[in-house]
Every structure is written in structure tokens, then in C-alpha cells.
User: Fold this.
Amino acid sequence: MRIVWLLAYSLACAILLTLFSNIQDMFKYVFSLGALFLGIRFFRQFEELRYRIWFFVIAVFFYFVFNLIYALYRAGISGEFTAYL
Assistant:
């Protein structure tokens, strides 16, 4: 069950950080505070070092994956892919 919570917290943090990095108005700081709150909550719940390290690694991995998906989505909308075909 701990692995499920680890993945859930990491996934939620990655989504919040992706939203923080891609939104351009002042509302983006709400997502940053949400990710900080989730990180603090995770660190209170899981005190073992290995879970904390895996939380960070998985969250950063999901963050890069979600940013790649978002970048490909935005490039597809703007029509940049059709220029190379």
C-alpha cells in the first residue's frame, strides 16, 4: 500500500509542478504552494529515507514526462509538426 501512496503523491506533485511551470499568470503560485504542501505532507507520513528519495525521483520523472506531453500538444496545436512533413 505504501507504493500506491508513493506513486499517488509523486504523480500529484508532478502535475502541480507541470501546471506551475506552464501557466503564466499569478494563479500559478497556487500550484507551487500545493506541491509544497503535498511534499511536506508526504515527508510527515513517510519518514524512511528510501521513500523520500523515491518520491523525489518519481516526481521529477513524471514532471519531465508531463512537460514533454504538454510541449508536444502545444506544438501540435500551433501546426509546427506539419512544417516538417
In short: The mean pLDDT is 92. DSSP finds three helices and no strands in the chain. The helical segments are 2-22, 28-45, 49-78. The longest helix spans residues 49-78.
